[in-house]
Write a structure and sequence with these properties.
The complex is a heterodimer of chains A (about 240) and B (about 100). Chain A is mainly alpha-helical. Chain A is about 75% helix and about 0% strand. Classes of the chains: A mainly alpha (about 240), B mainly alpha (about 100). Strand 2 of chain A pairs parallel with strand 1 of chain B, so a sheet runs across the interface.
Chain lengths: ~240, ~100
């Protein structure tokens, strides 16, 4: 979803940087207060960050015959919220802009708004919607992750469409053109990413449920319920 | 201990389906599997009528001299993530109190 260096007029680079900066500032403030309060959360932040690092390095082939990469921001969004996620996402984007020529410093604002801010906000909305319902917590993780991934690419399409409206049909026509490139490629990736992160979440639930309860990612009842279910012998295994 | 492996099964099926789709698409022949970033850039060139080469970086940037070096750096990025991941899960696993495991 990177917008390559030089492919965005400087006015738009500026606009997206201005949008992104408040999130980064908030992220740094939240991160500092969290570290001062309790260092116990740091390993979990490490796991969330590690997944953004790993997944955004994997460029996977997709149905449309082009390659794209997942974003991995869903897990961090659920555990730590949008602001801290924007910091982690920004670090990854900075690495890729400086060393890999994927994205660039001028377009980093736009790339942050799509991957590190916009996607997480959408994921967070889904999370808040499903958090206190009866929906299985792993289904919630799946949906949050998949939505955060897809919305990232929808926002990239929108950013490009705003900067490059088509001569005929304007912003909407070019949005559909970019959407066809990015978002459709992304649907299968989002599904796989959702499954993988749900699985990771299951292992966190198995190993460190108390951290998730303390952060109030899910209620204690939901976490213990999920644990009990995971530890129960599945019907298929019981029969054999 | 986890005994219910439903989610693991679903993930394996999803990954296998993904691979199967890839094999089917790539058997079709004409696809290059270039990055969607590049495809997007080409679309910009098409919409504006300027060739891709005319878009020069606003801020000068380092470009990996070859695909080999680029893949090294990507591998490094993933490896860093993997190390942190293994470290934390290992730490948690070691922290767990030796409970009455059966």
């Amino acid at each position: 979803m990177h917008i390559m260096e030089g492919f965005l007029p400087w006015q738009w680079c500026l606009v997206w940087w201005v949008v992104a900066i408040p999130f980064l500032v908030m992220g740094i403030i939240e991160l500092r207060s969290m570290m001062r309060k309790d260092r116990e959360y740091l390993p979990l932040l490490g796991v969330c960050g590690a997944f953004i690092f790993i997944l955004s390095a994997l460029k996977l082939p997709s149905v449309t015959g082009s390659c794209s990469h997942p974003t991995g921001t869903g897990l961090s969004t659920m555990c730590f919220g949008v602001f801290i996620t924007s910091i982690v996402g920004a670090i990854v984007l900075l690495f890729q802009a400086l060393l890999l020529a994927h994205g660039g410093l001028s377009t980093m604002g736009a790339n942050m708004v799509s991957m590190a801010i916009g996607g997480p906000i959408a994921g967070y909305a889904v999370y808040r919607l499903l958090k206190d319902t009866n929906v299985n917590i792993y289904v919630t993780v799946f949906l949050v992750t998949a939505v955060a991934d897809l919305v990232t690419y929808i926002i990239t399409s929108l950013e490009l469409a705003l900067a490059y409206p088509a001569q005929v049909g304007g912003v909407f026509t070019s949005f559909t053109a970019f959407f066809a490139i990015f978002a459709i490629t992304q649907i299968p990736l989002a599904i796989v990413e959702g499954c993988v992160l749900a699985l990771v979440f299951k292992y966190i639930v198995a190993l460190k449920p108390e951290i998730l309860i303390k952060l109030n990612v899910f209620s204690e009842a939901q976490i213990t319920g999920a644990r009990r279910n995971d530890e129960a012998v599945s019907p298929a295994e019981g029969r054999s | 201990m986890i005994r219910n492996y439903t989610l693991e099964l679903i993930t394996v099926v999803a990954v296998l389906a993904f691979v199967a789709i890839f094999l089917m698409v790539s058997a079709g022949g004409t696809h290059e599997f270039s990055g969607s970033d590049d495809v997007g850039s080409q679309k910009i060139a098409e919409l504006t009528g300027h060739p891709v080469e005319s878009f020069t970086p606003v801020i000068p940037q380092y470009i990996p001299p070859s695909g080999e070096i680029e893949s090294t750096l990507f591998a490094l990025q993933a490896a860093f993530g993997g190390v942190v991941l293994g470290l934390v899960f290992g730490f948690w696993l070691g922290q767990r109190k030796p409970s009455s495991t059966t």
